[in-house]
Design a protein that fits this description.
Serine Threonine Protein Phosphatase 5, Tetratricopeptide repeat, 2 strands, 14 helices, two-stranded antiparallel ribbon, single chain
C-alpha cells in the first residue's frame, strides 16, 4: 500500500490560531528572504487550506484530505482552500530554490497531490530528489516509493531499495518496514528472512503496527527465528492495540491454539511490552 509522509513540522502549526496577525507576522519575516521563514509561512498557508481536515504524519495517498473531499463544500470554501494551497506552493518554492531541504520535500508533496499546483509526478520526483540528496529522510522515503511504483520516474527496485535504506538508517519507520518487505520478497535485493526480521524488529520496537504484525507472523511461522507462540502473541497484541485488523484476527486464531498457561505468560509479557514502549517485549 502506498504511503507518503507529510512533514512533521506541519504539526507545529496544527493548534495555532488562524489569525490575521499571525499571518502578518510570518509574512513579515518571510519577506526578508530567509528560507526558513519562507518555509514557515508556506506551512501556515497549507494549514489554512487544510482547515477542518485530519492531516496525519503518514497517510494513504488515496484518502489524503478525505474528510474534506467527501464532505459538502461551497464553491467559496473550495476557492479559499485552493488560494491558500497556491500561496503555500509559492512560498515553498521560494525556500526550495534557496536549497532548503524541507521546503523541497514539501513542494514535491504538493506536486504529488496536485494541491495549489497542477499534479505532476515528474516534478514531485524532481523536488524529492533534491531534498533526498541533502539527507532529508521523508524525501528519501517518498522518492523510494516513486521508484518502487514507477510513478513520475522509471520503475527501479534497486533505486527504491537504496533510498529506503538511507531513510531507514535515519529511523524512518515506514522505510524500515518497506525495507523489511523488500528483503522478505526479494525485491531489489536478494531475499533474506534474516534481514526482513532485522528491519521489522527495528520498526516494531519503535511503534510500527505494520511491522509488529509482520514480526508476529515471522514468530508464528518460524521464519529466520525459532517459532514462538508467545512472541507471536505479544507482537500481534501490540499491533492489534494500534488498530491493525489483521493482527486482531490472527491473535484470536492464535489464542484458540494456545494452552491457558502460555496465554497467561504471553499476556504478562504483552503488558510489560506495552508499558515499556515496546522496549521490553521478551522473557
Amino acid at each position: 500500500m502506498r504511503y507518503i509522509l507529510i512533514l512533521a513540522a506541519l504539526m507545529t502549526f496544527q493548534n495555532a490560531a488562524a489569525s490575521d496577525s499571525e499571518e502578518i507576522k510570518l509574512k513579515r519575516f518571510a519577506e526578508q528572504g530567509t528560507a526558513e521563514a519562507e518555509y514557515n509561512l508556506a506551512l501556515y498557508y497549507e494549514l489554512q487550506a487544510a482547515n477542518g481536515c485530519d492531516i496525519n504524519h503518514e497517510y494513504n495517498l488515496s484518502n489524503v484530505y478525505a474528510d474534506c473531499e467527501d464532505s459538502p463544500q461551497s464553491l467559496e470554501i473550495k476557492r479559499l482552500r485552493f488560494d491558500n494551497d497556491a500561496k503555500a506552493v509559492h512560498w515553498y518554492r521560494k525556500a526550495a530554490n534557496q536549497g532548503y531541504a524541507k521546503a523541497q520535500a514539501s513542494l514535491g508533496i504538493m506536486y504529488d497531490f496536485g494541491k495549489g499546483v497542477q499534479e505532476n509526478d515528474s516534478e514531485a520526483v524532481k523536488w524529492f530528489l533534491k531534498a533526498a540528496r541533502q539527507g532529508q529522510a521523508l524525501a528519501q522515503h517518498n522518492l523510494a516509493i516513486m521508484y518502487e511504483e514507477g510513478t513520475g520516474v522509471g520503475q527501479n527496485y534497486l533505486a527504491a531499495f537504496d533510498w529506503y535504506t538511507k531513510a531507514a538508517m535515519q529511523d524512518s519507520l515506514k522505510s524500515q518496514h518497506n525495507l523489511g518487505l523488500m528483503y522478505q520478497k526479494g525485491t531489489g535485493v536478494s531475499k533474506s528472512d534474516a534481514q526482513a526480521y532485522k528491519w521489522f524488529s527495528k520498526a516494531a520496537s519503535h511503534g510500527s503496527s505494520e511491522s509488529q504484525n509482520n514480526l508476529a507472523l515471522m514468530y508464528a511461522m518460524g521464519e529466520a527465528i525459532q517459532p514462538s507462540m508467545i512472541s507471536a502473541y505479544v507482537w500481534w497484541k501490540m499491533s492489534s492495540i494500534q488498530g491493525q485488523t489483521t493482527a486482531t484476527e490472527n491473535l484470536a486464531l492464535l489464542t484458540d491454539m494456545m494452552p491457558s498457561v502460555a496465554i497467561k505468560e504471553a499476556q504478562a509479557i504483552a503488558t510489560k511490552c506495552y508499558k515499556s514502549g515496546y522496549k521490553d517485549c521478551y522473557k
